[in-house]
Amino acid sequence: MKRDMSHSVAHSGQDGRGGALDLLRFAAALLIVLYHYGTEAPIALADLHPVFGRGYLATDFFLILSGYVLGRAYGGQILSGRVGLLDFLRKRLTRIWPAQVMVLAALGIVLGLATLVGIGVRHPENYTATAFLMQGFLMQAWGLSGGGGWNHPSWSLSALLVCYAAFPLAWRCISRITSPSALLALGLAAVMAGDLVCRRVFHHSLYDLDFSLGVIRAAPLFLLGICIARVVEQGRPGVAAARWLAGLAVAALVILQIAGRFDLPSIIAIATIVLALGRLPVTRPSALIEQGAKLSFALFITHSLTGMVWFAGLNVLYGVLPLPAWLHWVLWAASLPLSLMAAGLFHRFFDAPVQAWLARRRTVRSSTAEAASTA
User: Fold this and answer.
1) Which of 137, 195, 344, 354 has the most CB atoms at less than 10 Å from its CB?
2) Domain enclosing residue 28, as ranges
């Protein structure tokens, strides 16, 4: 069964920007693009080496990181009551939904223009009105069928919305646990139990579920991230131990991918990397890495659109001009920097202005509410 991946997370100011976690976020976003574009290469990358078929682990990283970052950023505010459930959900929804709507609208325009000029779209069954509406409302990962196609990687955003709704209650519950070992055991047990249930009920592993069941896949990984956040909040492990753990976990993850498919050990290695790097202070923040991390969401949300336009254009070109094999590879490789350029333009001229406008509206609404309460 085909695998997919994706991500969108906020960042905790407590952890600092421009550090190792930001670098990993950007690298994982690139791996997601490479995984999706790999099927369009002159020879599918997964046929060259199986490691290129394990890009789904980048999604697992983002799902774990989402729980971790929200725990670090909002955990204290949730417990103190400074942020309520509705306000929290509003913030998370307004962060991801506008970008999804803009990209879906662009996909619809591109599809319409292609139809007008007579360019056929591959797999037209993936572009149904039902799927468009389901993705527009981010409902495609809630157990309903027919939501694939279009901006298909956004299934993880749909799944994370449910995780966001459960986050305040989950954080309140795990905050009562003080043992780091118990917290990590709880997170790993959730992943293992989720995998066991999926194999028994759906006859697929947790990582091979249909994307319409994305919530089931995301929930245990998100919970693992929350548990890691609680451990880091308690100051565990020590900084010196965290450095050793980070190195060993990265080495283990690389070796596992070379050796074959080992999903659970890979998840443990990824979780260890998040735990270790979360404990390391950002002593020399990099502005370039920080910008890359900010670009990662735009890269994720737009790369399906960029790939659709670029590879459709290449198919038209190949039908007109006979090109040597090496040039096919060059043109395919050009899709990667093009996706970065498109993401940068989207972030600069669309996503960032919309988020700034929404932030101003929240500030005005908050000021109006405070004035009314004191009147």
Assistant:
1) 195
2) 13-37+46-296
